[in-house]
Amino acid sequence: MNHAQDAHAPHPLLKRKSPAPLPVGFLTRAAQLPGGRTLAVAFALCVQAALTGTTTVTFATWLRKKYAISSDAALDALDRLSAAGLIETDRRRGRFAVVKLLLQDEIPRASAG
Question: Structure pTM?
């Protein structure tokens, strides 16, 4: 094969792992909580968990900004989600919150992608 043929050879497609399903029950319960951004925080956490394939997520600044959530609204929402038993948080001064989504009784689920 010469170089001209190499330039037109098809490239193999990379297979992308499909994300985990979104937890509909979790999001429904979060939607019932007060606060304007509580559902947005719950959604951001669920999407990040689905994309990473884990239920433990670091709630970093870039994630807040991606979903237009202020730091005050995020902290309030994390408190509400925690009080409702939907998450557990590890929050330390000077560090991003590490959030564990409590999804053990989650059914049904909807596909994220």
Answer: 0.74
Q: In this structure, what token pair is assigned to residue 11?
A: 């490239």
pLDDT in tens, 11-61: 555 555 666 677 888 999 999 999 889 999 999 999 999 888 889 999 999
Under 8 Å between Cβ of 63 and 98 = no
As given in the structure block, the two tokens for residue 39 are 């559902």
- Specify whether the CB–CB gap between 102 and 86 falls below 8 A: yes
As to burial, measured by CB atoms within 10 angstroms (0-12 exposed, 13-18 middle, 19+ buried), residue 103 is: middle
64-111 tens-digit pLDDT: 999 999 999 999 999 999 999 999 999 888 889 999 999 876 554 455
CA distance 32 to 80: 11
**Comparing C-alpha atoms, which of 2, 15, 23, 6 is closest to residue 81?**
23
Q: Give the integer Cα–Cα distance in Å for 30 and 84.
A: 8
Distance between CA 39 and CA 29 in Å, rounded?
9
